[in-house]
Amino acid sequence: MIPHQRFQHGERVEQLPLRKDKTTGVLYIREKDVQRVFSGATLFKVDGIVIYYLEDENEEEYEPKRIGYYPDDVVEVVIPGLTHIHTTPSVDLSGRTMAQTGSRNSSHPTQLITNDGMELSVSNLSLRPYSVHTSTLVRSATYSVERPSKSSLSSPNTIAHQFAPIARPMAALSAIASDITTIQHQLTHSTDQQSAHHQQLLEQLIQLLKEQAASKEREEQMLREQAESKVRDEQLLRMQQETIDRLTVAQQKIEAILVQNYELHEYPIPRLFVILPDSYEKWDPRNIMAERFRLFFLCECGDHCNPSVGSTTSSGQLTIAASASSTPVPVRSSVHLAKHEGYEISRSKEFFDRYGPYVLGMLRMLKHCLAVAKVAAPAIALVESGVKDVMDGVTSISETTIMAVDMSIDFLEQKLDENATGDGISKTMAGSQEEEEEDMFSGLTALEGADLRRLDSFLRKKDADKILGNLYRITLETGHVKWVCLHHYRQVYRETAMASFLQCVETNGGTYDPQFGKVTITLKSSIATKDFFSRLSTQAPAVIGLRVMLDWSFGSVDLGMLVDKIAQSNIQELELGLMEMDDPSLLGSLFRPGKGRYHSLLGLLSNDRIKRLAFINVDLIGPRTSSLPKTHRPTLLQSFHYSGWINSFDDSRLAEIISLCPGLVDVKLGKVSATSHDISKVDQALGSLSKLKILNRYNLYFDSNVEITNTTAPYGTVALRELTDIGMPYPTGPAGLLEAAIRRSAATLEIQQIRFGSIAKSQGLANILAALPLRRLYFDVPKDDNMLEMVLPSLNLSQLQLLIIDYHKFGPEMEAVLAARSTEFTDEFVLYLEHEKRLKADEAQVLNSREVQGSPMKLARRRVRVVDFLTTDPEYYRSVTSS
């Protein structure tokens, strides 16, 4: 089918064949082609929009004029014609006036008699009653008078006779003109009324819109109030729940205090005890009454001594499950004999009569625990001289221990059989020996306070320090009293103290990572800081890492307290951030005589526990500290990070710190200030580090006037494993220092990203980049520098994922070089064209003009992005300066 374009004028639609440009191949149609079909066509529209003629590359219209091809649209043809101005009178125009005008004109049918005898009637000058057209009125008032012949003009009488009737038509015309003026005034008045009506409607519409906006504002205000009310209700419910929780906790504490007061009075000595024979080899079963026994207390450790079950003492914060009643004896599978030689019993007959059933029950419990191996009972070595040693925590159970328990059970069973009915508590302790193991303790009840206090009178040898059986009394959160051995006492105290410390961390919005033993916290007041570091030094032996930010107006005394408390803790990795307040008085303190505001921080160098030290937001360390004494011993620091600005007056202090740490492996230094002309002491200190493996430098030698010699070692003197140099205005220098650092570290160096500033031309550096497998590379070079042309053809692309180049310094020649090497790209490779200001429209089209698949001269569209330097620069800085 022949390509064509449809044109329409009114109801007429025509299809005209298209022409094709021999150069560009663009389809079009000439204006003359359309004018042959639609005569007079000079204007064309598509969907009501006027279309322009096609232009050449010089933005000049083609000759003959061309119309573009619109395959899916019909082009409307506009032909200019005679234009009439219609003025329609308003409804209030009196029909009576129109009728009068018509009747007046029709009642005088003035006639003009020509020499040919023709009559010209002017009755047609009457106005139409409903619509008046100015053009019609003019045509109605026009009449033609034929030119008289010479013969008619020759007679004066004839001329007078012929022109006499003209006066009447002229009068009629005057009347018509008057009527026309009246009608025009009426039309003007009607128009004014319509304008006033329209203005009134417009004002009403504006008022409605204002009311609608006000209504919408009221609805939005109502919604906001409802949302605020919901938030207040939720806060109220939360406060009510917190109040209920506090009341519950307070009630529990009150109950615990009451229980504690009672049990402290009722249980002044341990409650669990057994008797064992004093000598095993001299034991005579025929005369058991003559044998001597010793009393041994039992450690009451249980779930409350095991942090994994969530129990602690009263000073802790974790929840424990307390016994419902203090009367039944809590049978713990971890109950064991305390490490003690035992006590000789006086008045044995009275003792067995009073405590025999209770002791028998305790022996059965101990035997049961030993039989099922649920506790680690110390072995009791029975020798001729008696009980010589009780070793706590031994995993293997001695046979002599079980035999001693059996002997005691046999003795008490025989004793109780002989005296089946006893007095005192023995009446409540009767139990059948034939009952099953699971019910062997159902009738066993705890001793009352009076019985325990009386027990003390039966012990022949008492401890001088009043520590019965080497047991210590602890109080659980519920108020119950327990007697435990020294090992479990320390364990409970340690877990309790750690729980208290963690609650302090949580209260201050901090976090604790138990896997690495690290606390991250921001302290915002003097009280919170003192409380935290006091607990850190006494309650947190498991914490070895600390990242702390001081966000308040601290002083040198506070920093001194911090250093002292850290020295008393187990901190090995410290990250200290000082978020200084904006106080102008602090600047004046920089120049006051004395040691300086931050001098106390240098005391951290004397802490042998610290292996990693990082100062965050710490600036002006030079004037805020004093020189270290020359007799200061070297530290054991292995990592030192200083992320603050480095000025010339910081050079000496940082050099002293680095020199005191010969074992440094990791050094990261902050940005060198543009006003600093020389930090050679820091460079020389870095050159003395023989174990240096990781180095981070930022903005070295910003001042191009700095004299750099071969003795300068900004990158150290040993082989490195990681090297980061951000924003290098000086990457190589006259001595080729960076090249030398990379070459000597070639066997071990792992550089994933590097950023070049004002790069000096160096073929050696280009060769290094050709061999170095980078993941990220940043170029910021002068426009007239040919470094990119030198580097891009041989740049190692094997692992490169991101290449950042200034948008305005990246030309088509450079893109062609990269496009030719597109087969070497990784799947993640992207070119960032960085710009500092808003792009122009033609510059923004550069990105869109790239093809999806790319070409030999241009990269594929997905490989290129135009980005703002405010996005790339902070992101890059964080990636290389993060701790």
Core attributes:
nine-stranded mixed β-sheet, alpha/beta, five-stranded mixed β-sheet, 883 residues
The computed structural class is alpha/beta
Give the total of beta strands.
32
User: Average pLDDT across residues?
Assistant: 72
Q: Helix count? A: 21
User: What topology, given as strand order, has the largest sheet?
Assistant: 19-20-21-22-23-24-25-26-27
Rounded to the nearest angstrom, the distance between the terminal CA atoms is 72 Å
Largest sheet: 9 strands, mixed
Q: What's the overall geometry? A: elongated
Q: Give the helix proportion (percent range).
A: 25-40%
Radius of gyration from the alpha-carbon trace, in angstroms: 54 Å
Unreliable segments of 5+ consecutive residues: 82-156, 307-333, 373-397, 421-443, 729-735
Strand content range: 15-25%
Organism: Linnemannia hyalina
Keywords: Coiled coil
Protein name: RNI-like protein
Helix and strand arrangement:
Blueprint: E1 4-9, E2 12-17, E3 19-20, E4 27-30, H1 31-37, E5 43-46, E6 49-50, E7 66-68, E8 75-78, H2 95-106, E9 111-113, E10 119-121, H3 134-140, H4 150-153, H5 156-163, H6 167-266, E11 273-277, E12 293-299, E13 336-337, E14 343-344, H7 348-372, E15 380-383, E16 386-390, H8 399-418, H9 449-455, E17 471-475, E18 481-485, H10 486-507, E19 511-513, E20 518-523, H11 526-539, E21 545-550, H12 556-567, E22 573-578, H13 584-588, E23 612-616, E24 639-642, H14 651-659, E25 666-671, H15 680-687, E26 694-698, E27 722-726, H16 737-744, E28 753-756, H17 763-771, E29 776-779, H18 787-791, E30 802-806, H19 812-820, E31 830-835, H20 841-848, E32 864-868, H21 869-881
Parallel strand pairs: 1-8, 20-21, 21-22, 22-23, 23-24, 24-25, 25-26, 26-27, 28-29, 29-30, 30-31, 31-32
Antiparallel strand pairs: 1-2, 3-4, 4-7, 5-6, 5-8, 9-10, 11-12, 12-13, 12-14, 15-16, 17-18, 19-20
